[in-house]
Amino acid sequence: MSATAAPAPDRSDFRTVTMGGVLIGVVTGVAVVLVVAASRTLTAGVAVGGVQALVVLAAGVVVAFLPAQWTAARGTEGIAGAAAVGLVGTVVFSAIDIVLLRPFKAYPWTWDAIGGGSTWWYLPVWWMLGTFLAWMGGIVTAGQAARGAEQATLGRCALPAVAGALVVAAIARLALAVSLPAVTGGAFTIVVAALGLVALTRKG
Q1: What is the reported pTM?
Q2: What is the pLDDT of residue 145?
């Protein structure tokens, strides 16, 4: 009789966190490049906004839910590990942003203008956002796993967040004059946070 050993849950070792964070940072950088490329190559309007929104949504899924898959989040240790992966990912992307994107003037620095020409006012906000998304994704993943290990796949964890974000983004877009990529990213963050709170309530 043979048996397949299940992977050990709740990994938060240094290698998992750092390697995962580097991958998250690189994926975020690629997503930004794709958004910029869409704005420069596609006709302005619904087409470019739709493509950018899809890229934002895909990047959101990666940032929020892949860290928890790598740390096999089932309890406190794995959830904290997922959040750490998210934090490292934001720092790695910040380096890519400053070293590569800024010198090539990839996009207009509106945020810098708001902050008086400084990047340091919004970089900490970015670090907190990436960490928060990965933390909530870890909680959602752990909540799914509590129902059975087969429930904690990337697809099962991310699908409710994607569906909810699309609904919220559509409603907000009709009510507010906000760009589609921005409202999609905001809607995804809100829905993931709501799902995390629901998972905590059920666990409690």
Answers
A1: 0.88
A2: 92
